[in-house]
User: Fold these one by one.
Assistant:
Number 1:
Amino acid sequence: MEVTKNHDFGTRAIHAGQRPDPTTGAIMTPIYQTSTYVQQSPGKIIGEYDYSRAANPTRAALEANLADLEGGRYGLCFASGVAATGVVLHLLSSGDKVLLGDDVYGGTNRLFHRVFTQLGIETVLVDMTDLDAVKSMMDERVKLIWLETPTNPMLKIADIAAISEITKGNDVILAVDNTFATPYLQNPLALGADIVCHSTTKYIGGHSDSIGGALITNDPGLYERLKFIQLSEGAVPGIMECFLLLRSTKTLHVRMQRHCENAEKIAAYLDGHPKVEKVIYPGLESHPQHELGKRQMSGFGGMMTIYIKGGLEESQAMLEKTRFFACAESLGGVESLIEHPAIMTHASVPADQRAKLGISDNLVRLSVGIEGVDDLIADLDQALG
């Protein structure tokens, strides 16, 4: 049966882009572990493939699957999330300007400011929750707006539809990193974004066993440009990673439901804890963009940040005491993780920028997994105790 946009997300997650192998009937898309493909004669390929840097059947199934889940026509997969980001930046030319969300993953910040700046591309940080600030920074040199929503690690939420109206009037590409929300909770293309980016390492993969990235778009011209850069640069994922990610998308909806349920309960618990100064979680009414989150997302995700009462000593002690919450970088896996942004994931962000955002020594980021929530709360309780 053909999968259509009218089918449930879970049905599409399991079936979109994939069919049983026509040779063996294997229910899972095979691992096509090959670099090249035999041609009938010079330039006359058999089927669709000639060289796996250009395309591979396993990767093609994953790309079609992710595109469907995001409501897009075209998908491209990469060796990592920052590799996908770099391909978007290669759409630009020397002298162009980018408006970058002021609170993004540290690796994204580093790529924009320390790699592409030397190629003559200017990056300007903007608080994407302030639409007037975005409008005020627009000029003829701005060719790209790149934002995360929710952001990493401060979980700010940007109004994608409103920013889309700004870009459409100025012929600017709007790219949205949807890693935290996933297509299960948020669909930026439907809200006017031109490109959706994912670090598939995180919730898409969900098992902390593969690294990858993806771009999805509805624009055929944009897709062809991105595809050409992908082919030319070659930052494509390994086939085993594609196979693992295809395995993972089949349970994305189930995992995200549990991530959200657990995170909402843990946020409520921490919000009342005497040793927690503040909890930042979009599902709490105290979150400044809570209402926007309710309109733009179907759930609030599994990420939160908390301010521990005290400073570095107190926050570090907590991270050393947790057991189910493993102290590690990354996020979005079935297991819960805890980390210190100022020292770990965002250490590459300049200290003055961290201070402006509120990434202080007592800030801790939690990636809530899908374990039993009572066990997770008990773990946090003993670590804070």
Note: The domain at 253-384 is CATH 3.90.1150.10 (Aspartate Aminotransferase, domain 1).
Number 2:
Amino acid sequence: MTRLVLTFTDSGAGGLKAARLADCVIGVELRFVCGKLPAASQLDALLSPRAAPRRTGAHWLDSLSGGLLADTHRQGLGLIEFCERFDAVDLWVDPDPNSQLQLVWLLDYLHPHVGVTSRLAILQMDQAIGEQQPTELAARQPRLAPIYGDHLETARDAWTAWRASTPESWFKLLRRDLGALPQLRNTVVALLEELPSRSSGLGATETRMLELLSAGHVHPYDLFPGHDKLNERKTFGYWEIGSLLDGLARCQAPAISGLDEGPFDLDMHEDRDRHQRYKRGRLALTELGQAIVAGAADFSQYNAVHRWWGGTELTNDRLWRWDAESRTLVAP
């Protein structure tokens, strides 16, 4: 029996390849937790067959490497056609929100293709795949469960809700039985918590960074989440966290002072001296930052807001908020 494994992080794909669990392991990593979502047509084109000689635009084939896959590249296969070459297709899914969003997106895409969904099985992890040893991963393989209609329907509704122009449908997922995708409920809550708070105008990750700074953790990377780090919020990735920190320090009325190096981009990382200055920087809360931590100020009253939360465009005039105490959505 030939087996294909699909996963949603590069580190996870590397670990699964080392575990030798399948004939082929593919990692497809997109970012859906932050920024404007790609149009549906772009996502369809990403997974559809790519006809030669047209090679422009992002495509799932770009993540493939190795001589055994050269034929797949040459033929420009879509993901559906590639999956149909295998007897079994396994989905290994990390618990973080971005991986869960990729899961519901992919299941929604695969939903009409019975020739693929009938071969699907899923393993929902409670720990990041890339953090585990290959021997640990190999021992988990028997826990794979077949994909059924309730998996596909739950995924379709969740992906539709995340793409909606308001957070209302996403909030309503909390009233549903999401047991078919057991990590999805945690993701729904984690993303609602990243809406601007009713009291502070900041999401949970930004708020946690200010709290850590208030507690004396003054270097930029002290505020980042990660293994054995005090910031336990793992909704966003490395680059997104750096951007959030920039947003707290580089705005009309900063909540943080002392972030003298930046912005947090690839250019800074590739310049060793600049990156070292960034690491050594000593941060402090401004008066506004102190007031926010004390529960006495709203960041959005002093600064312009314009960002995307799924399909919802958040601005000062259209600021959907989350009330953590009552666990309710607050309309603009």
Note: Residues 149-163 form the longest helix (15 residues).
Number 3:
Amino acid sequence: MQTKAFSEIFPLFNTANSQTLELLLSVAVEHEYPTGRVVLMEDSWGNAVYFVVSGWVKVRRLYGENAVALAILGRGDFFGEMAILDESPRSTDVVALSKVKLLSVPAQRFIQTLFKDPQLHHRMLQLMVRRLRQSNIRLQLRRQPPAVRLANTLVSLAQSYGQSTEQGMEILNIPYKDLADVTDISVEDTTKIMEKLSSKGWVKIDQEYQTLCLANIKQLTHLARVVRG
């Protein structure tokens, strides 16, 4: 991958200098996983940071025999950084929600690069603060009705990873169990709300291509009452 394409895909590297990008790409390893494959195992020690080139993954935590999705990530995002920054075992695992292509950068090289490039270091801090703010937004929404919370999740995913089409903003047709988990509502509520949104024409599901189109992003954003930090 060329350095220009790399920086365009990943917001983390928007301000990184060309030498930093060339160094990281020289040691990056490409991975491809099918839908359902576990990419990272919980409790394994962090030895790399992973970047999502294409496809979708979910970050989940296991509670005995039950698994709960904590986050859904798409093209341009990254994961695995926490385990290498605090040098501890991973507290979650990551599973491919679709066919996914990743790039991994060895932990030691990534840490070295962070300290060598102040712009990258600063950008990393900005994005981690952004994730904390998103977590705070989820907490603020807990008292809101399920429909508001689910609309917020859909709009957030579309804004972060969606692709603009003639029909609207397109994202993965995420399993309702995972949507329910990251929204902190029940699967039953998720199913009912999605059926209502579909009947209104605000969302359109393509089962063949496993895509979900937010056909009326304006109304969904209004419903979401998006809290901005």
Note: The chain has two domains: 3-138, 144-224.
Number 4:
Amino acid sequence: MSDPSPAHLRTRSDGGRAAEYPPAPEPLPVAVYDNHTHLEIADGALPLDVHEHLERAASVGIAGAVQVGTDVATSRWSAEVAALEPRLLAAVALHPNEAPELEASGTLDEALAVIDELAARPRVRAIGETGLDFFRTGEDGRGAQFRSFEAHIDIAKRHGLALQIHDRDAHDDVVATLRRVGAPERTVFHCFSGGEELARLAADEGWYLSFAGNVTFKNAENLREALRVAPRDRILVETDAPYLTPVPLRGRPNAPYLVPHTVRFMAEVLGVDLAEFCEQLAANTVAVYGSWQDEPVTGAKA
């Protein structure tokens, strides 16, 4: 297998930012993981390749990341790079906004079959990001989103994988779908966007809440309220890089090495010891995805 890690499959849909990546933050006292990132997307004046991303991350106490696919091409890439890079695991799926287009072209079932095949690979540990997005998709495309979401839930359960949910303006329908068809044992609300009510509901169901850099935004008190009521053993952290760069770095490209900014902010909101909080985050992440060392890579670069 050729090494896919230096390449980028795409740039940001808005063309990317001209700004440079920020300087590295102070390292965390205990290593944690970025459980949702998109390293296939080039951003910034000088885009980083996968190796550069992970070297910077390791230098500040980020032990690894989950590289997430959003269509067939990025899911294949994610599975391939995780097979080569010991600091990465993969998640594979069709983003909910892909489903209506695939349905219209008659290729949704074919694309889902590819996700099912990729799900069997040993370093693929999650199905995601999948879910519902009513912000970008109107009524006419929602049927395809529901069908795709339910198919992804089935794939996750059959393969014993975690589920990473994309939920935008669709809280009630996401929850209703999970309850109707049965959620996988390890279900994660990626880039959690609800408030205290959804956080309490998720806690009752045993679901995980993953907080991104937007928890630091001034207008995101609802996310901080959710964080305060979430069980500590159900909290995860992510970048969703290159998006959602945390305060005080908004406007600059995001990357896994910037996770310490978000982790420190979350610890302050909760009023907890930083090292203990890092230990909890790391344990939670491994509980969802397994160890990054469980399956050997097939040819990682030295």
Note: The mean pLDDT is 94.
